[in-house]
Specification:
mainly alpha; Lysozyme; 193 residues; 8 helices
């Protein structure tokens, strides 16, 4: 009599169990990563961002990206060159916006006030968006100044079409633009449902 070998029915069960376990681990890892990204890209000062981004016609996710990149949501932030507040407004920029908007009441110390800072920052972003029309040039102008970006756009070494920056010759500004772009895209992915 020939003995039949018992079939091992455990192998398919083990394989299915391993696949299910890996799927669960992947889902938990994604949820954990998503939670981490949401924590690192919060929505704060929402009423001010909503109000002033709407009033000045600016994408609110761009405002959040600037706040996250500039100050990490710290209203008392001061940069090494003296820019203040959530959106890191320089005193000369504050004076220019104050003049352009006819604001006779605000003083530079008000840049530590979240509402005033976001109002000024949204106005500036709106102005830059109208002037430049694309994210890279707007972010570069926010960092390096309008005059500098206009010079780059008029130089064929930096811009082939006079509208888009092909090369940003200042490393700090190039890095800043990449950070803004990454933060902006992350905000869109997380919250633009």
């Amino acid at each position: 009599m020939i003995k039949r070998r018992k079939r091992n029915n455990a192998a398919p069960v083990i394989a299915v169990t391993v696949i299910i376990a890996l799927a669960i681990v992947a889902i938990l890892a994604y949820i954990g990563y998503d939670s981490y990204v949401r924590n690192s890209h919060p929505i704060k000062y929402e009423s001010y961002v909503e109000r002033y981004s709407r009033e000045y016609g600016v994408d609110k996710y761009l405002v959040y990206a600037v706040i996250k990149t500039e100050s990490g949501y710290r209203p008392d932030a001061v940069s090494n060159v003296g820019a203040r507040g959530l959106m890191q407004i320089m005193e000369t920029t504050f004076d220019w916006i104050k003049f352009k908007t006819g604001d006779d009441e605000s003083v530079y110390y008000d840049m530590f006030d979240p509402e005033t800072n976001i109002k000024y920052g949204c106005w500036l972003l709106s102005y830059l968006c109208r002037e430049f029309g694309n994210l890279d040039a707007v972010a570069a102008a926010y960092h390096a100044g309008r005059g500098q970006v206009n010079e780059w756009l008029s130089d064929s070494n930096y811009s082939a079409d006079g509208v888009h920056l092909d090369v940003i010759p200042i490393d700090d500004t190039a890095y800043y633009v990449s950070k803004i772009t990454k933060a902006y895209n992350t905000y869109l992915r997380l919250y633009n449902k």
